[in-house]
Amino acid sequence: MWSFFHKLGSPPWLYGISGSILRWLLPLTLLALTTGLVWGLLFTAPDFRQGNSYRIIYIHVPAAVVALAGYYVMALAGAVNLIWKMKMADVAMKAAAPIGAALTFIALLTGAIWGKPTWGTWWVWDARITSMLILLFLYLGVVALYEAFDNKEAAGKACAVLSLVGMVNIPIIYKSVDWWYSLHQPASIKFTGESTIDPSMLYPLLLMITAFYALFTCCLLMNMRAELLQRESRTNWVRKLARDGGRD
Amino acid sequence: MYFQSMNDLLYMDGHGAFVWTAYAITIIVIAVILIAPLRRQRGFLRQLAGELRRQQGAASSPGDN
Q1: At CA B37, angle to CA A153 and CA A242, rounded to 5?
Q2: Which of A167, A207, A215 is nearest to A58 (CA)?
Q3: Cα–Cα distance between A87 and B5 in angstroms, integer?
Q4: Residue B19 is nearest to which of A45, A53, A226, comparing CB atoms?
Q5: Where do the structural domains in chain A lie, given as residue ranges?
Q6: What is the value of pTM for the model shown?
Q7: Looking at the predicted complex, does its ipTM rise above 0.90?
Q8: CA distance linking residue A70 with residue A117, whole number of Å
Q9: A245: which chain B residues are within 8 Å (Cβ-Cβ)?
């Protein structure tokens, strides 16, 4: 167990293992994404009230779910960096922020596009949508804060504190549709009790949620690898990699 | 397949423009977040390889003359 943690702190080991994970996870992710997109777009029946506009659910919900999960990853990595000063946690945190921002952006944008034919408006300042916008700003804030510091260690600490403080936003996002009256519908998929979504729509949606989790993992690992190389540019293993033309 | 024709698929009873725009933007964003780290990694390794070659050249050239 401890030797595993020890290895986790070793950049060449992490670079190697992430490379071998990506070799099978990346093709699998692309396959799942393509299958899910085609399934949702072409092979499901339209919703009986919303018609075809509901097909946006297959990208909107997965993006939003994983944008929230990504925030846990970022804040947890920040906490590990603050408490144990683990460098790799800092790398993971910096890697997670831009992906989370991209996914939150997808969720907000597809939500706006879905809102127009369904609610008759692109945007409402209700609790769910506003708290998701704050999530986007938190992600972008972490990205910008990293760039604002010359000192990497100070940057990592400041970003970790920002993301931990931002955690208060997460339960607000989850509960916003129950606490406040909103145009946004409550969750259709429930862990406890019956889901209010037809299985023919549920399966492609679950596939897309899984695919988005895999996408997040792939992007996280790829961002970490790029960051690792830059931070370790003076070490022998990175120099050897550069001389060999980048093949690992 | 749910749709009867290509036109049905594109039009989607009036929702086509919304659905297709949402999907197109999503695919573009996904492509960007997948390609950006690969480009960064490749660019960095190429740059470092160039620097190492130059250093090697600078270190060996005084001995050659």
Answers
A1: 85
A2: A207
A3: 55
A4: A53
A5: 30-187+194-243
A6: 0.90
A7: no
A8: 29
A9: 45, 49
Going residue by residue through chain A (248 aa), what tens digit of pLDDT does each one get?
667 767 777 889 999 999 999 999 999 999 999 999 998 888 877 776 777 788 888 999 999 999 999 999 999 999 999 998 888 999 999 999 999 999 999 999 999 988 888 777 888 788 888 889 999 999 999 999 998 988 888 899 999 999 999 888 888 888 777 777 666 777 776 666 666 777 778 888 999 999 999 999 999 999 999 999 999 888 999 998 988 876 65
A233 touching B (Cβ < 8 Å):
yes
Cβ-count burial of A71 within 10 angstroms (0-12 exposed, 13-18 middle, 19+ buried)?
buried
Residue position matching structure tokens 């699998």: A28
Give the residue extent of every domain in chain B. Answer: 24-56
> By a Cβ cutoff of 8 Å, what residues of chain B touch chain A?
1-3, 9, 12-16, 18-19, 21-23, 25-27, 29-30, 32-34, 36-38, 40-42, 44-46, 48-49, 52
Encoded tokens for B3:
């749709």
